Each structure stands twice: as structure tokens, then as C-alpha cells.
Amino acid sequence: MATTTTDPNGPSYYKRGSEDVWDFIRDQGLNFHLGNAIKYICRAGYKDSKIQDLEKAIHYLKNELDNEKDLYFRASQGIPWPLQHKEQPWEAPKEPPEGSDS
Fold this sequence. Notes:
The protein has helices at about 20-30, 30-45, 50-75. Helices cover about 45% and strands about 0% of the residues. It is mainly alpha-helical. The protein is extended and about 65 Å long.
């Protein structure tokens, strides 16, 4: 079991169990959409509107499901998943080779 990092200043609606929600999400290795679904499920009825939180959880689950269906369809059809551009925003631009006119 992961070590919890309980934040004494964090909101009480995320602290009802023996482990903070963010620790559970991290421990389970959940991605953004699944983590947010868990977050909204856990706080439903403890912050704002229970209905609103459950609708938000469903929104994130539907997004994750749609993405998984798209990945499955692309794989079954032999369609490659589009790759992101190799240069990341935090990387310095590549210098042109010496002697080039670029």
C-alpha cells in the first residue's frame, strides 16, 4: 500500500476514507479521465450537488470509454494511431547543422 500524503489544508470532502482520493488514484495508476471520475464519485453528495458530481463522473467515464472504443476500432482496422510531434514544448529548438543555409 502506498504511503499517504494527507494534506491537512485539503478539502474535507476528499478525506472520508483511510486514504486520500489522490493517493488512491496514484496508487492505482489511473489516467486523467479515470482519476477524475473517481474524484467526482468520492465527493458526490459532500460538495455542491450530488447530481452534478455524478454527471461529471459519467462525463469523464464516457470520454474514457469513447477513447477506448476508438483505439479498439483503429487497431481492428489496422489504422495507426496518430503520433504526436517528436519535439516537446520544453525542448530547445534544434540547431541547423553547420554549413547549412537554414
